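At this stage, I put together one protein's amino acid sequence and its backbone structure tokens, which the following lines show:
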Amino acid sequence: MDRDTTRLFERFDETPRNSRASSQACEVVIRPARVSDAPRIGRISADREGTDPERAIAAVERHLIDDSLGRSRLVLVAEVDGSVVGYGKARHLDGKAASSDSSLPEGWYLTGVVVDPCFRRMGVGAALTAARVRWIAERDSEVYYFANARNRVGIALHDGFGFAEIARGPTFGGESFVGGEGVLFRADLGAPDGEQSN
């Protein structure tokens, strides 16, 4: 079944971000997600994916209760004026999982950032990405992400974080891509904070 791709990727606007940011910037607070955030995260996710909100909320609740949260998975939310307006995730792919998918190296992956359409192009996605990269930098010396080659907005979002393309393929992490091509990116973070010498 073909998916409606109009929901998948925001229209790419080549206007420099600084020319829009002054009138659209908002104060964003980034924090770890809590189970009580599940209804809002689920609705934002369901809106983007065009799925049932109640199922999405239940899935988010299960995800936030899972005991791997904070050890091998991360979920952060972005708040504006006390309301959750977006979320970003990361996960660690260990050696066993990496060996089952030879297209992916072991390590930490940024696994998605979704922002309420009313708050897009205001720096929310960038704030979530910066916070996830900082969190991973405390634990590892590199970070990865993969994206659909057609997702120009998502790729542009990561441009300022030092990511470089390392591979292209029809699938990564068991995920196939609309249009048939995904791109794998890597950024060097240096030594984890606790391992840096003075």
The helical segments are 17-24, 38-49, 53-65, 95-100, 124-137, 152-158. The first helix runs from residue 17 to 24. The domain at 25-195 is CATH 3.40.630.30 (Aminopeptidase).
